[in-house]
Write a structure and sequence with these properties.
Blueprint: H1 29-39, H2 41-51, H3 53-77, H4 88-98, H5 106-118, H6 134-145, H7 147-150, H8 168-174, H9 179-186, H10 190-195, H11 199-207, H12 211-216, H13 229-241, H14 248-264, H15 269-276, H16 281-288, H17 299-319, H18 326-334, H19 337-343, H20 362-366
Length: 367
């Protein structure tokens, strides 16, 4: 429809007003979640290579528990359309499984996946509403509930079958300490200190490993997905290329751990590199700290968040009762994210910061 001028007339019938955002992007929650799942494929491959089909079954059961919890809660409790197709529940189950030891009973993996969604995500209102990282919420609960199972480690490279030995001597024969666990046990060994031998060299000789093994993730014990740092870096590099993560928080966390251990060990770079390449630091830094929901928004906030995670990790590793502190450090810093976002809130464009009022003496003002 047009008037005599030839220009189209805009009427109420063809004027559509929608809610923001008005600029659409091909990047969606679903695409991001499935790409993060894809980035974890190298880690999963190394987990199966190191621990066999048992690791694969634990991963599948953890994912099944997470997806089932998402479906049941959304359909029967919240009575809303299910969102299991967006991949977020699958991702939560994957991340939890990669933080678990391969020797745990299968039912713990399933229960853990269910808890991660029920108590770590849906209880807050679903995706985008949760305060804490769901996978670490479940891991913390499992560690408090079944500490023996959660601290039984099998050496990487021991190709486990779907069933494990049931007698104690046989289990003891295939279990071994993690590098961080052995570090915690021998840190105050008077005989070692008197001998003058480097504690890192002692650990390497005891476990028959070296720095290359720590990087590749072979020949030592640990969680299913934390052993191979190289596989984690491959996945992280893919996410960086796709611009789903940045290096503000991971870089700050890794740098804090490196600098902190360097100072603590009187400038021993070998000791610092050992802390960087052991435990769940890489997995936590690149796949947990970068979580869009439970991390700060702007770059300064991300750096503060990463430094806090690294500092608390160090505090637990060096002075705490557990040899590893990545899980609890991230959960503790998750609680501070609203405060960090408030303190680091950028100034709105065009808004001038008001000058503080100057209080003058009433007598001088009257003159």
């Amino acid at each position: 429809m047009s008037d005599n001028s030839g220009y189209p007339q805009i009427t109420a019938n063809n004027l559509i007003v929608n809610n923001s955002p008005h600029i659409q992007s091909p990047v969606t929650i679903k695409s991001i979640m499935w790409e993060v799942n894809l980035a974890l494929v190298p880690v999963i491959i190394m987990a199966i290579y190191n621990f066999g089909l048992r690791a694969l079954l634990i991963i599948l059961l953890s994912v099944l528990g997470a997806v089932l919890a998402e479906y049941l809660i959304q359909v029967f409790l919240r009575k809303i359309p299910t969102t299991i197709s967006d991949g977020s529940a699958v991702l939560t189950g994957l991340l939890l499984a990669l933080c678990l030891p391969v020797a745990i009973p299968y039912w713990i993996a399933f229960v853990g996946g269910f808890i991660a969604i029920a108590l770590g995500k849906q209880v807050y209102g679903g995706l985008g509403q949760n305060i804490f990282n769901p996978a670490h919420v479940a891991r913390a609960i499992l560690l408090a509930s079944w500490p023996v199972y959660m601290n039984t480690w099998l050496k990487s490279g021991f190709n486990t079958s779907l069933t494990l030995p049931t007698t104690v001597p046989e289990i003891d024969a295939i279990t071994t300490a993690t590098p961080l666990g052995l570090l915690k046990e021998t840190a105050k060994n008077p005989d070692l200190l008197a001998s003058g031998q480097s504690i890192i060299q002692y650990i390497f000789e005891t476990l028959n490993i070296n720095f290359s093994d720590l990087l590749l993730g072979i020949n030592f014990s640990g969680s299913i997905g934390e052993t191979s740092k190289l596989a984690i870096l491959i996945g992280a590099f893919y996410l960086l290329i796709r611009k789903h993560i940045n290096l503000y928080a991971p870089g700050a966390m890794l740098a804090t751990v490196f600098v902190g251990t360097y100072i603590y060990s009187n400038c021993n770079i070998e000791y610092s590199m050992f802390h960087i390449l052991t435990g769940g630091l890489f997995l936590g830094a690149f796949f947990m700290v970068t979580d869009m929901v439970t991390s700060p928004i702007n770059p300064l906030g991300k750096i503060i968040f990463g430094v806090g995670c690294g500092a608390i990790t160090l505090l637990i590793r060096l002075k705490g009762g557990y040899p590893e502190g990545v899980c609890y450090s991230i959960l503790i810093m998750n609680a501070f994210v609203p405060l960090i976002d408030k303190l680091c809130k950028p100034r709105r464009f065009g808004v001038v910061k008001p000058k503080p009022a100057v209080v003058t003496d009433s007598k001088e003002a009257s003159k």
